[in-house]
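Appendix B, record 7
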Amino acid sequence: MKSPDEIPVDVSSQSSYRFDANTFLLRPDHRDFVLGKSKILGRSSRVGIGCIIAFFSVFALFGVGMMVMTLYDTYEWFVINQQGMTTTARYIDRRMSSSDDSDSYYVTYQYSLNSTDYTREQQVAKALYNNAEVGGRVEIVYARSNPQIAAIEGTNNLPLSLLIFSLIWNAFVLIPIWLGIKFYRQYKLLEREGRLVQGEILRVMHSLDSDGDFILKLEYIFQVPGTYQRLSKTESAQRNDLKGQVLPVRGTPVVVLYNHEKHFMLL
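C-alpha cells (predicted):
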C-alpha cells in the first residue's frame, strides 16, 4: 500500500488555488499577476536582482581590465624569458606617482636596434629608481621577435602575486553576477510556467534591519499539486507599510507560485 505522500490527487476536480479577501501577499506588487490581470510578476524582485548585477558589474569591469593587463604582463615575461637578448639602453626620464596608500616609481629608457630607436617605460622598485640617473646606461633584455618588449636586466619576473589577486578578485565579483543571472532566468521561467497554489502561514516573524526597515518573515506550507506531499519554506520581504499594523497570523492563506518541488516562491 502506498503512503499518503505517494498517492496522487485528482487535480481535475480540485481547485489548488483561490484568492479571497483574507489571502495575504508578502509582496503586494504581485497582486495583478495573482488576479490574472498581468502575465508579468511585480517589479520588486526584478529590481533587487538587477541592483545586485549592476553593483557587481562595476567591480567586474575593473577586474576584467586588471586581468587583461596582468595577462599581457605575463605574456611579456614569457616572451622575454624565451627569446631574451641583451643590449645597453640609456635612461631618458623617471617619475614617481603618489597615492593614498603608496608611491610607484617609473623609469623610461631608450635603446637602438638595427637603426631603430625604441623607448619603454617600466615600473621599478624604489632602490632602482633612486640609482637611475637621466643619461645613465643600463643593461636590458628584449624579445628577439618584438624588440619593443623589454625589461631592465634582473627585473623580468612573473607577476604571480598580481595574477593570483586578479583571479580571486574576478571570482569574487563574477560569481555573484552569474548567480544573479541564473536566479533571474529561473525567476522568468517560474513566471512563464509556474502554477498558483494556495498555502497557509505557519509562523510570523519580524525585525528591523540596520536602516530601520521593517522586515517581515513568513514560514509557510502548501500542498504540491497532484499529490499529498506538503512543502514548507521561510521567505522574507521589506514591508515598511506594516509598521505598527496588525500582522497576519498562523493559518492565514497565502499564494505560492509553484513549478516543481525545488522551484517555487511565495507571492
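Remarks on this record: The two ends are 36 Å apart (CA to CA). Residues 1-16 have pLDDT under 50 and may be disordered.
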